[in-house]
Write a structure and sequence with these properties.
The protein has 395 residues and is α/β, with parallel strands linked by helices. It is built from 14 helices and eight strands.
């Protein structure tokens, strides 16, 4: 048995402990304050100490003045390799409080954690933490999605109930508010909707003709533009623009009202916030978005005609004849039928997010962004479902 340490003038360089070696046994006498503040110095003192062929180690805590969990953890880690090698460890002359701390720490699975760290690389625990964060984040996101879905269904049910009540009690319908929102959603949006539809139809025709001329089939450019505008692009462009323009306005307006306690004031006066604030907006967007779809379809066809006449050299009569061969009113109705669904989705999401705002103006901004993103996402998903259903039905 041997105990190796560093000596200076025959005395151990140790301030917090004294080592006494005997035959196959070692006594470690602790003294001073063994706390988290002294732990770096304690580790430095015992860093060069090596125990070999020890059958018994005695830890004497008679002169120990203070002892905390950090020191107990270090002492446990120091004794653990000796105990695994078969050495007997004894704790003598410890105060009851100090011994209780040591027993509590030594009962923790330190050896198992140490062996596990020794077997694994540093990358594996990091990947495990990342995986846990990803799974937890995904779970939280799915919970939010489920709650938002339930709120959308609840809003839609409340909308149907209020509409049926207005059918039997039309005098309670806020016509002036509905007209005001139709002007805000529809009339003021006509310029931007018309410009967007015209531009996209023109670009679509240009790109389509550039590809079709490789097959000497530029005449089908008119078919491409007309069918795309009437069935898909007209209503989709309109819905996305309305979601960005009016859906965000709904969320910001209702969020500000919620923040200023105007919604609570309506409840105090006995008025329903849904009837006063939400229902007029939903009815207005339900009327305005289909009308804007007609404007988008018209401007899209105009853009297709201008491109065909300027680039392909078709006259008005030739364009109209080709457009009638490619599409009819049935194609228009297919696209037009999507507009009310998109309108309800945009209106419900915008109003719902606005009424959920609370605590600060920053939250109003966050809810506005959420309303726009969710509205556009739901519009695109609904459009994809419409396309699948119409294809399966042969419409």
């Amino acid at each position: 048995m041997a105990v190796n340490t560093v000596l200076r003038d025959g005395s151990p360089l140790m301030q917090y402990c004294t080592i006494q070696a005997e035959t196959a046994a070692v006594t470690l006498r602790l003294h001073g304050h063994w706390t988290v503040f002294a732990l770096p110095e304690i580790e430095r003192e015992l860093a060069d100490v090596r125990f070999k062929d020890i059958k018994r180690i005695v830890v004497d805590g008679k002169k120990l003045e203070s002892f905390d969990t950090s020191a107990a953890w270090y002492l446990t880690a120091l004794l653990a390799p000796l105990q695994r090698a078969g050495a007997l460890a004894e704790m003598l002359h410890f105060k009851d409080g100090h011994l209780k701390i040591f027993n509590m720490i030594s009962g923790l699975p330190q050896g198992t954690c140490e062996r596990r760290r020794n077997r694994r690389t540093l990358l594996v625990p990091h990947l495990q933490r990342v995986f846990r964060h990803v799974v937890a984040g995904l779970g939280k996101h799915m919970v939010h999605v489920w709650k938002d879905t339930c709120r959308v269904i609840s809003f839609f049910g409340a909308f149907l109930v209020n509409v049926m009540q207005r059918v039997f009690h039309p005098k309670r319908l806020r016509v002036q508010s509905i007209v005001f929102h139709i002007n805000e959603i529809g009339i003021k949006a006509i310029p931007i909707i018309a410009l967007m539809a015209f531009s996209i139809a023109f670009v679509m025709g240009y790109q389509g003709a550039f590809q079709l001329q490789k097959f000497d089939a530029t005449v089908y450019t008119i078919d491409l533009v007309v069918l795309s505008i009437l069935r898909e692009m007209g209503v989709l462009i309109t819905a996305i623009m309305v979601a960005g323009r009016s859906g965000s306005a709904f969320a910001a307006q209702l969020g500000t009202m919620k923040l200023n306690e105007e919604v609570d004031a309506l409840r105090t006066m006995g008025a329903s916030p849904f009837e006063v604030l939400v229902l007029p907006r939903l009815l207005a967007i339900l009327i305005a978005l289909p009308l804007l779809t007609v404007v988008a379809d018209t401007m899209g066809l105009l853009g297709g005609y201008i491109f065909s006449s300027s680039y392909l050299g078709y006259s008005y009569v030739q364009f109209l004849a080709r457009a009638q061969d490619a599409a009819n009113m049935h194609q228009f109705y297919v696209g037009f039928s999507k507009a009310p669904v998109f309108a309800i989705l945009i209106g419900i999401v915008g109003c719902m997010q606005g009424l959920q705002a609370h605590s600060s103006a920053e939250d109003v901004g966050n809810k506005t962004i959420t309303a726009v993103v969710q509205s556009i996402f739901l519009v695109i998903v609904a459009d994809a479902l419409f396309s699948i259903i119409f294809t399966k039905l042969g419409i």
